[in-house]
UniProtKB/TrEMBL annotation:
Pathway(s) where this gene product acts: Protein modification; protein glycosylation
Class of the enzyme per the UniProt entry, highest EC level: hydrolase
Cofactor(s), by name: Ca(2+)
Superkingdom, taxonomy of origin: Eukaryota
GO MF entry, a single one: mannosyl-oligosaccharide 1,2-alpha-mannosidase activity
Pfam family name, one: Glyco_hydro_47
Organism expressing this protein natively: Bimuria novae-zelandiae CBS 107.79
Entry keyword set: Calcium, Disulfide bond, Glycosidase, Hydrolase, Metal-binding
Disulfide linkage: 645-674
GO cellular component terms, A-Z: endoplasmic reticulum; membrane
Family: Belongs to the glycosyl hydrolase 47 family.
Descriptive protein name: alpha-1,2-Mannosidase
Amino acid sequence: MFRLRRYRVFLAFAVITIIALYQFSSSSSPWTEQAASRFGQSQGGDTEPQVKWEPKPQVAKETKQFEVEVSAATNPQAKQTPPPIAPVEKPVDKKSTTAQGKNSIPVGVGAGHAARPDATSTPATEEKDRGQDILGALLSSSEEAAHWTKMKEQYPVPTESLIALPTAKAKSIPKIQADFKKESDVEKADREIKLGTIKDVFKRSWSGYKEFAWLHDEVMPVSGSKKDPFAGWGATLVDALDTLWIMGLKEEFEEAVKAVEKIDFTTTHRSDIPLFETTIRYLGGFLAAYDMAGKQHEILLTKAKELAEILMAAFDTPNRMPQTYYFWQPDFSAIPHPASNHVVLAEIGSLSMEFTYLAQLTGDHKYYDAIARITDNLEGYQNHTRLPGMWPTYFDASGCVKHQYNTSPNKPLQKPITAGDPGWDEALKNGAYLKANPSQPLVLPPAKDGSIAVGVEELSPNGKKYIPLEKPEPLKMAPNGPNPTWKPPPEESIDWPGPPNAAPKKRQLAAAGFSSVPEATPVKSMLAAVGFPSDPEATPVKPTCDNPGFGPSSTGGREEYTLGGMSDSTYEYLPKQYLLLGGQVEKYRTMYEVSAEVMKKYLIFRPMLPNNDDILFSGKLLVYAQEPGEPLTTDLEPEYAHLTCFTGGMFGMSARIFERPKDLEIAAKLTEGCVYAYNMTATGIMPEAFEGVACESQKVCTWNETLYNEVLDPNADIRLKQHEEAMANYEIKLKSASLWFDEQMKAYMEATAAPVPVATSVVAPVAEVTKVPDSVLDKRELADLAANRKGKVLRPPQNGSTNAESGPADDEPPTKIATEEEEEPSPSRVMPTFPAIYSPQVPLNHEEYVKMRLEEERLPLGVTRIKAREYILRPEAIESVWYMYRLTGDSYWREAGWRMFEAIETHTKTLHGNSAIDDVTKTSPTLNDSMESFWLAETLKYYYLLFSEEDVVSLDEWVLNTEAHPFRRPKA
């Protein structure tokens, strides 16, 4: 009966719930409509809103995308239909003239580019805005994203000033590829089997991308998810177009070309567009696929031009140097901006091939002009760095900072002049030659005493003598300060901006962007100085930068010079640009050859290895600031990175086209260094970066185990000395603690010792009575105890009698026995504890420490540190292996490349493609669930070309950009 009643309650509750849900779903006024009506909007928008829409000030947001992996979001869930939502249009400020969207104000910019407060926002509307914000958050999904719009150029290049694309007939350039011998039937069958295996790996990766990340940047091959680290324009799709064509996957190629039409380059979830990555992947991918497919798919060239128009907006700066991270939103892009004063070399120096090829395919000179100006500035800066001939990884490209040299962008580099050369005498006349030829270094001969002679007087950057400055007058304090005599200057003496004929100070203030009224607030002044007008209706102040050249980002500290990350493709593009232009621009050859000599002298080294392998690595050179005239202070980090492995191909190709036969040997040893790095790990894959021991000579380099162990354990002596000092301190503490303990123990023993009985001839010793609980005493003992409590004493038995009870003797005083009420508790004492003193741990000796490092860090012999253990499917090593095979025809490179491919496939294979791994030194590395677009665009393409017939993408017909996109070379 009780159970039946309980079920009735549950049944009634279920009926009520069903009725409530039905009423909610059939309601004629959805919750969004009700929310909208609260703020004066009807469902159909026929009635006027009750509250005027006044936008809140826009706030800068976090640039970095917030990504959280939520299992519930990735697991398949049953789809649920949400309640219907009435369409509601967000009111738009009619005064606004720019497109508004979710990201209408760029995020992540510097403090100088803070978002401007909207003029229509007032404290009176704060409460209304709060409610409107709530409604806007509810309806944010219906907002349209901001779109890039082409603005009027702030710093246009006149048509007559454009640097024209060279159109003359290409020069005759030496042959690059080797003459290959005919392969046997067995060799052909083996090669085709390997070619098919590589193609299958590509198809698996492409299928994973198509199924899980179509039109997104990358697929996550382990989880089957997607991500958009670039602009969300389908990086893998565009990057792999030419690989699809080369591998003969024509159906997949046609499908991908159709998908390209859906890409909208005018909007992205990012607030900025990375110019370098977008150029090499997207622009290069479109152009290569368009040309390789016979120029039949016009949509590819159209998309390339659409993207190029957006990228060209990044060049709209005072010196026409690009913003390498272009903030594209209309509200920000409409404001004049200079290029960065802290650019990465590779990001600004690796745009030349793509824009040149676009100019060649379209005939539009503006694309070539954009990158030719970068080349001119690189040329002008090349011999003025701390390491003349190379460029640091970071430098100033803004043109707004005065440098201590005058660049001659259009003047080619020249060899140094020495005593006896033409112009030597002129060079010593008042420094006239140096000022007229800043790009030509001067080498002065040493004097007889060995010192360096000085041929000209010490000059300032403007060519004048240095004159000591006079001591300035004492500063006057502001009002209310320590100087009571201070008075403000008369108002008419203050220089504020005025007409064009105003005083120089006025013009300077105006150029700096300060407001034209004395009452201007500091905030307005600062905003105006960076391009924001103090008046919303005013025209932004353009930054004025009259120095077009490049220069150092800072005058102190150290600079890095490397062929690895942040520099690599700038050097790679010098010989490749020479090929793409048909040898018509000689400066690219000169710039490469000057830099190559510096690379060989300062960066390339032979590592010390157990088997004395004759290979080469390319390290990182740190150059420290020095005063003029002081010797160069450098420090070589014997690092070798996977990114640096491209150098073998660069040196090899350049050795052929520039007829530098010795460099071909260097190219082979650099490539062999990468092959060695693959073979030295447990997985057979090269780590991202590691360090070794550099030998002083590239010719003689003998294994020295003692030296190697010292590099692994440079602090053995320090460690031993520290242990000795710790032991000495330990002995002192131990002795001190022992003395203290002895004293405490002595005091304890004295305080707890039993009283010494006093021997007399009259008083007999009295037995000590121990108090015992009554419950454990027998009757006889109870009687004795009772007598004792009455003030009587129990004496020892005499004359053999027992239990003798008697009072005090007549001849001695009675002994008083204290009762329980009269007893005083004696203080309890605890035995002292010896202080806790720990002896120093015995350190490992030198041999034990070296063994420990080798085992725990899994270091191959010869490697002193693995800086980065991961492998992210990089292509640079196989790139150089392919180049060396095409240059030499030696089958060794095919064998080495196949071992590398098998190792990669074994440890990176997933169900939906291939994944980056966390540690190449593990026997079972962890998959990182990442597959960058260059896995399909470069890595697998190079493996496929290694086993293709040699006329497929011949180096005598094509030149590949840094993303392995082939561009057709002009015919001689």
